[in-house]
Design goal:
hydrolase; Rossmann fold; SGNH_hydro_sf; 7-stranded mixed sheet; SGNH_plant_lipase-like; single chain; hydrolase activity, acting on ester bonds; alpha/beta; 392 residues; 15 helices; GDSL
């Protein structure tokens, strides 16, 4: 699947440049700008397929979206993602980039989401050279180029752009997981894929530096989730003597160590960026340990159906079957997704994403603590999105 990286030159913009103070909307930020993959895509991939003759993939069919939206929205979950909860808390709407392109309307002061399902940190040309499968060419670098085109269209001067970005909360990821998922799922050993980690981190660092050059002041950079708790991988390595399993969680030790290696490497590089740009807020979001809370104690968080069973799947020891994925008939969804952590094998349920959101953006799972820079907890139902506003 591909998506054009050319922003229409004759685009007619409706510019709503709302420089709202913290007291006006209860938020420190006037917009959210998001880059990433399926953990953050709120409709871009769906719009690409809607505007093409390509056959839609399984995640663009029911029961995706059933819990909150009651229809398919292009999110890889039964409902909302972390970014949805963040936008709701800050009272900010975030529009998919593909919607802006299609409708020729841009509303600055709310937010733009460039994330695409299947996106990688490294360009698709790298993965093709390695013989890896690639779902999309919308890598992090491509998403940054899309953003630059938007910026060039709305900013008369570099100073204008810095003013807009100064008050924006920018999410760079989660990104990088698919750089590992694609090759491992299609047969490569994780030991071989481990050599990708420095390259993946370098791609993320380059993107962050480009955003800082454009004027970004506050960037949240999430780490990888615990790969070893994915029911996709647990199914692939079921019965294998090549892996070890944690006695407490049942997750694969080696793949969780792989994710932790990525996260440590990322944090080292983020510290270097902080040294170079002491006036920029670089925040590491610890998605890994935020998620490990409920993998270690699923019952404590209301996940009474256990931590390692897929809600929507096609059978097998973890209810995941790569030949019968969620959205493909006759796979079936569970009756109560809120009692499950895992939604479809790789992605989590809305309930699990809500725990991650609370832990990161209203809790202590950031470095430095985000809630000391800006409080999201003071914004409640008055500014929250309704399901009709969120549905694209």
């Amino acid at each position: 699947m591909s998506s054009s990286s050319t922003f229409p030159t004759l685009l007619i913009f409706t510019l709503i440049l709302k420089y709202i103070t913290i007291h006006a909307n209860g938020s420190c930020y006037t917009s959210i700008i998001s880059f990433g993959d399926s953990l953050a895509d709120t409709g871009n991939t769906k719009l690409v397929y809607s505007n093409s003759k390509l056959n839609p993939p399984h995640f663009l069919f029911p029961p995706y979206g059933e819990t909150f939206f009651h229809k398919v929205t292009g999110r890889c979950s039964d409902g909302r993602l972390v970014i949805d909860f963040l936008g709701e808390a800050l009272g900010l709407r975030i529009s998919p980039y593909e919607k802006i392109k299609t409708n020729n309307v841009l509303e600055i002061g709310q937010g733009i989401n460039f994330a695409m399902i299947g996106a990688t940190a490294l360009d698709s040309s790298f993965h093709e050279a390695q013989g890896d499968s690639s779902f999309t060419n919308a890598s992090l670098g491509v998403q940054i180029e899309w953003f630059k085109q938007v910026v060039a269209s709305i900013c008369a001067t570099k100073s204008d752009c810095k003013n807009i970005l100064r008050d924006s909360l920018i999410l760079v990821g989660e990104i990088g997981g698919n750089d590992y998922n694609h090759p491992i799922m299609f047969g490569k050993d994780w030991e071989d894929v481990e050599s990708y980690v420095p390259l993946v981190i370098n791609a993320i660092v380059l993107a962050i530096n480009e955003l800082i050059d454009l004027g970004a002041q506050t960037l949240v950079v999430p780490g990888n989730l615990p790969l070893g708790c994915s029911t996709t991988y647990l199914t692939i390595y079921y019965g294998s003597d090549k892996v070890d399993f944690d006695n407490t969680t049942g997750c694969m030790i080696q793949l969780n160590e792989f994710a932790e290696y990525h996260n440590r490497f990322l944090q080292v590089e983020l510290n270097k960026i902080r040294d170079l740009h002491p006036n920029v807020n670089i925040i590491y979001a610890d998605y890994y340990n935020a998620a490990m809370q409920f993998f270690r104690s699923p019952q404590e968080y209301g996940f009474t159906s256990g931590g390692l069973t897929t809600c929507c799947g096609g059978g097998g020891p973890y209810n995941y079957n790569s030949q019968l994925e969620c959205g493909n008939q006759p796979s079936m969804s569970c009756d109560h997704p809120e009692t499950y952590i895992n939604w479809d094998g790789l992605h989590l349920t809305e309930a699990a994403y809500h725990v991650i959101y609370k832990s990161v953006f209203e809790g202590t799972y950031t470095t430095p603590q985000l809630n000391t820079l800006c409080s999201t907890s003071n914004v409640r139902a008055g500014n929250a999105w309704s399901s009709s506003v969120l549905s694209f």
